[in-house]
Design goal:
4-stranded antiparallel beta sheet; two-stranded antiparallel sheet; 6 strands; alpha+beta; about 190 residues
């Protein structure tokens, strides 16, 4: 993040940015795994359900930190407009990927058993992407903050001041969902 901010500042100060053009690029070859300093282990770098490049063979033979995923972004003028991936569709690849990240097969079966069963019955290869239409509108409107173009922007505390959201839930709503709130004591 720091490098991106530095690059943008240098480009702005040296007037290297042509503000009258839209420059698009695809970002590909995202790493499948990364080293977690906090947990002192290999973990997923982004989406654990993406297909690793090289499939099962890559997971079994390569250093996990060299494996790339079939993930991609479309960026325009430095703003991410769209993200996507080719999804994993094979149970053995998913189990191996999660094993590398330190998850036992029983945990994966417990949490994602439905998906694994679909894979075992023959899910087809699939993928896609999700464009952020609001981000595209932001660029077309020559704005730098998405808050300027969305209908109900949130403030820095995640509140929608126009709609007074979030609001307190009624006791019946908690009961309906079988949850309790441990709200801070008011002084």
């Amino acid at each position: 993040k720091f490098a991106g901010l530095a690059r943008t500042r240098v480009a702005t100060e040296l007037k290297l940015i042509d503000e009258d053009q839209f420059k698009f690029c695809w970002i590909v070859d995202f790493p499948m795994f990364e080293w977690s300093e906090e947990e002192k282990k290999v973990d997923f770098s982004h989406n654990p359900f993406s297909m690793p490049q090289g499939g099962l063979e890559a997971l079994e033979t390569q250093d996990p930190l060299t494996i790339r995923a079939y993930q991609y972004d479309i960026v325009c003028n430095g703003y991410e407009l769209c993200s996507g991936a080719i999804r994993n569709h094979k149970a053995e690849i998913m189990l191996k990927a999660f094993e590398i990240a330190g998850y036992d097969a029983s945990v994966v079966e417990d949490q994602f058993g439905g998906m694994l069963n679909a894979f075992r019955f023959g899910a087809p290869p699939h993928g896609g992407l999700a464009p952020g239409i609001d981000r595209i509108v932001m660029l077309l409107a020559n704005q730098v903050a998405i808050r300027e173009v969305i209908a109900f922007p949130l403030n820095q505390q995640g509140q929608d001041l126009l709609m007074s959201a979030p609001s307190d839930a009624a006791e019946r709503q908690y009961k309906e969902l079988h949850i309790r709130a441990a709200l801070p004591l008011k002084t």
